[in-house]
Write a structure and sequence with these properties.
Helix content: 25-40%
Number of helices: 8
Order of helices and strands: EHEHEHHEHHEHEEEHEEEEE
Strand content: 25-35%
Shape: globular
Length: 244
């Protein structure tokens, strides 16, 4: 039986761009799926309620039962209420925001331990934008941004590690070329840089990875050595093996 383990989206969460993918994933889970909308990455913004409402409307329209989990800071992540609710979820969906904040909030927390326990029992974990970045072994953390909203100064930190030896770069098709150069200098020698276009998702299933949506996934060994995987293309079963 096909069972998707992880979904990494470059953008597009809770929008029509993801309808077909989300319907397919809900069909894998079965009727009555409880989908958690988790806007942790936006915990420093004024947008979490908007994300929760948008995600709830999206999944309710697809026949699922949405469950907003408003884990926005470390105190929330240590709150038994959210930990216990996590134990009832079939699909966790982490939306976008600040990759440094989401990792600092979740790493080592009772809530994240409950999410991982459900994941081991078969629950799906999906992340979009910063929600996808947190799932790599390491993540970029912007510390300054320019007028266009793109980072001008970036560091790296350990992330949550569900995708080993990877840094995940969402919104890849709209990134200015300077960003790739800046990020490439920060990638550890044993990692890959994983670029995911907007409205595109990378699904981990059946021991490999599948690209879905309107764009591509690019796997960089170095800035000049990359593999490009179009939507519907071959599984990336070897993409994250360590470098020789």
């Amino acid at each position: 039986m096909t069972r998707t383990r992880l979904v990494l989206a470059g953008s597009g969460e809770f929008t029509p761009a993801m309808d077909a993918i989300d319907r397919e994933l809900l069909a894998e889970i079965g009727p009555g799926a409880r989908v958690a909308i988790v806007p942790t990455a936006a915990g420093l913004e004024d947008t979490p309620k908007g994300w929760a409402a948008m995600g709830s409307d999206h999944f309710r329209a697809l026949g699922a039962e949405p469950v907003p989990l408003m884990v926005l800071n470390r105190a929330d992540a240590e709150d038994a209420r959210w930990r216990d609710l996590a134990g009832t979820i079939d699909w966790f969906y982490f939306s976008g925001g600040d990759p440094g904040h989401v990792v600092a909030t979740l790493a080592g927390s009772p809530f994240w331990s409950a999410v991982l326990a459900r994941h081991e029992a078969g629950a799906l974990i999906a992340g979009s934008s910063a929600g996808a970045m947190m799932l790599g072994q390491t993540t970029f953390v912007p510390s300054e941004r320019g007028p266009d909203g793109f980072p001008t100064k970036v560091g790296v930190r350990a992330a949550l590690g569900l995708v080993p030896r990877a840094l995940i770069a969402p919104h890849f098709d709209i990134l200015p070329p300077r960003i790739l150069g800046m990020w490439s200098e920060l990638v550890p020698a044993d990692h890959r840089l994983l670029g995911i276009d907007e409205d595109t998702a990378l699904l981990q299933r059946n021991g490999g990875w599948e690209v879905r949506g309107r764009g591509r996934v690019l796997v960089f060994r170095t800035a000049d050595d990359r593999s490009v995987y179009p939507s519907g293309g071959s599984a990336l079963s070897l993409a994250f093996e360590p470098l020789p």
